[in-house]
Amino acid sequence: MTPAAMSVGSSPVRTYRAFRANEGLGQKFRGLVRAAAIAALAPSRSPTRTTGWVRFPYYHHVFDDERTGFARQLKYFKNIGEIIGIDDAVAMIDGETPIDGRYFCLTFDDGFKNWIENALPILVEHQAVAAFFVAAGYIGTDPECDRERLLGFYDDRSRLMAFLNWEDCRQMAAAGMTIGSHSVDHVYLSKMGADAARQEMQRSKQMIEAELRQPCDHFCCPFGIPGVDFMPDTHPDMAKALGYRSFLTTRRGPNRAGGSAFAICRDHMLANAPIREVRYFLGDPIWG
Ligand SMILES: [Zn+2]
What we know:
With 288 residues, the chain is α/β, with parallel strands linked by helices. It has 11 helices and 12 strands.
């Protein structure tokens, strides 16, 4: 066992550096190649080339060493557009209000403790809001008592992450953030029968509503790739029938008027990614 592997799970991950510490050389190399390719291509793309869209950047974590990067990204979003809440974003996609500019609806997946420790204070400082999607069955878990289960959150069992508790969620909601559902057990809906999938969506909604005493209107599909992790002709309709007002995926791209709130596209972000990466992922080609 390597020293890094021996240390897995001794205490929850607090930094992005530690989060990536157990990556193999191959993974590290691929990361470097990817970063170099993005740096080379970034000047050819710009989010300010077009308007009339809502982009949903999505994050998983803001670790201790990502705070500065996250604040920098918020400033960038505010510079080129407006950060709006998910209810307003859904109203735009539904056509209730016009998409008369560039809008960003920030979203977070899974339910990690670093949301309240790092993301929330930075959002509040910048007068920005975000929607946080919790895997309800992990909320209130304890890194010591539930260590084995928490290590299983990632398939390779390489990291121990601390999750929020319900009081944290209530505090975030009180600060103006939206708490949505990311299922109960962070499941692949496509691998489950219809009843089990429906239960994941329904139970998580009920748990969140009971704990927060307010409606849980938005569902964010775990893993989120259409046709792979969920069935586009089944699961969004199921969410709608259960009373959700949106279904968020991990398909990249802008959401424009005439789109569907039950097939929302999002763009994955790392909180400490340089602005050129944000430009690259959120931008349209400058030429063509
Ligand atoms: Zn997730």
